[in-house]
């Protein structure tokens, strides 16, 4: 029998896809495994992207594998704005860097049933997805995988022509039973969506992976808001001058981030923990709940399905920007606690200076999330940027919450 790769049909494939998802663990088997529950919606992790597709691999009447993909336009580099006012050539000190955009595709949720591995099904799914990417004008395709997932790394690098590109860090902080105290010297202002969009476009549009449709990200129902931290004495919320003026004369330090509600999209669950570990974790919660003023770092119940919030669009400037980020993370923790989440997660460039302000547990985090990239076409790119896959990493990247 031949394996057929075709477009996912929500009316008849849902159960088959869920069955494969349930038995697939991502990564090696010798440690705790993380299972994802897509809550009956196999397309939930891509449906917020502007263009997306889900493919299944079928053997006879059985679904034996699947993959998802999406395409959007992002920043892949920057160039100097060539002309100043009155069409005068701007010199290099006054030239404002402008983003260079590219059409980028992303492959995620590739799964093959353990009973049918090493039969070329994974490869067939990736090839079919790449064909769809090309048909839709994508110039690059990328994937993210754990750096110890050798099956996935070999498949993409050895067999499909991807190269290792970036290694951002996924930082995970548990949500405690107690509220986190935020610095009394920092004021947190919630920006409305239009101000948030302007601030991001003015300040971060040249950051690589910045989505050109940032407005649809910020306007999405899953986006819980954009928050700005400033020194308490610099602004009152009613004195907020708007993003342009704010950036023209900013306080000595500031930071910004946005929060995305992944909890309403899918849940996670840790399996394989011993009874001793579970009891220990429960004890920390009981103590933290009884004595919240001690601010004990309790371990949430990760052993049943839990949701999380994702912090994205992290940025800031000034000597105390790290402190501002820490205050924002405390605020985000308390928001996640209110909404019943088990964790707050973010992903930042491995070179991001502001990561020092992001509280996280090393044992829950992933220091090197491996992103591999491939150039699908040669015809589109702006000459001044050339081949993005060959460019060195920058200090920051913009991780799109729609692709978490
Ligand atoms: C990764 C995965 C999709 C591969 O599916 P698959 O159908 O077995 O892959 P293929 O048979 O097409 O293998 C193609 C190539 O990938 C590499 N590969 C696949 N499985 C591998 C393994 N266990 N160890 C090392 N290399 C492996 C090999 O280069 C292989 O070619 P070869 O068989 O000629 O040596 C599958 O193992 C899986 O579902 N894993 C769990 C979920 C996961 O990790 N997904 C990836 C997240 S990005």
From TrEMBL:
Gene3D superfamilies: 3.40.630.30. SUPFAM superfamilies: Acyl-CoA N-acyltransferases (Nat). The gene is HLS1_1. Residues 3-182 form the N-acetyltransferase domain. This is N-acetyltransferase hls1. The lineage of its organism: Eukaryota, Viridiplantae, Streptophyta, Embryophyta, Tracheophyta. It comes from Stylosanthes scabra. InterPro entries: Acyl_CoA_acyltransferase, GNAT_dom, Plant_NAT.
